[in-house]
Amino acid sequence: xxxxxxxxxxxxxxxxxxxxxxxxxxxxxxxxxxxxxxxxxxxxxxxxxxxxxxxxxxxxxxxxxxxxxxxxxxxxxxxxxxxxxxxxxxxxxxxxxxxxxxxxxxxxxxxxxxxxxxxxxxxxxxxxxxxxxxxxxxxxxxx
Amino acid sequence: xxxxxxxxxxxxxxxxxxxxxxxxxxxxxxxxxxxxxxxxxxxxxxxxxxxxxxxxxxxxxxxxxxxxxxxxxxxxxxxxxxxxxxxxxxxxxxxxxxxxxxxxxxxxxxxxxxxxxxxxxxxxxxxxxxxxxxxxxxxxxxxxxxxxxxxx
Lengths: 143, 152
Fold this sequence. Notes:
A: Double Stranded RNA Binding Domain, 5-stranded mixed β-sheet
């Protein structure tokens, strides 16, 4: 009886230590976390901020990197519709691609990353930024 | 019946061969360990001007490659470097092939920071990339995962 208790206690101890180790090694993006959006080429950071507001992503955007828990970095590329696209495909929309990653500032680990490509973006950068925001929100809701 | 001197000579030869064999086998096993990418390894992706490193990070997450991407090189076990090139669809491609997709090519290599060994390298060329850089980065991630799963 006494031995069984000892074995159970030891097993519980192991389980707790493994759980805490797992929690330490895997930083997670949680609702309410403070994020800093690093400046991006073409001002995509501004589009992303607006998109996060519009999609009601439950993260707090801060203007100072020191106050943040996470940092969002990204890049975007726009290709305006050329004459060929307009004449042959009768399409005036631009082609957009963007990619973002969210890293934990303490551990330096990337906790979320997403890329999007729209061959015919109805609202230009706004569309790609909103796609990024939507997927951040989905990732937060999963946890 | 062999002479004792010959027997001693044979014994000495056998004994001298053992360290050479063990050295060879350890060298082989070290080489095998060098080229392996253990699951949960920390990988630093060298930033590229066109932001391709972020596409790679996204592709690695999407394809669920069992590595941890870190933004600090000093915390990493491996370093991933890549180059990429895009060519937009021109008049001829749109007119004759009715395709507006870009042509993409990328190359990546994964280096063990401690040993300096290149443990993985991969090139991809897509003449008709439906999703631009995303497609080429996902091809790289897929093959990295395959390499890890093969355990070689």
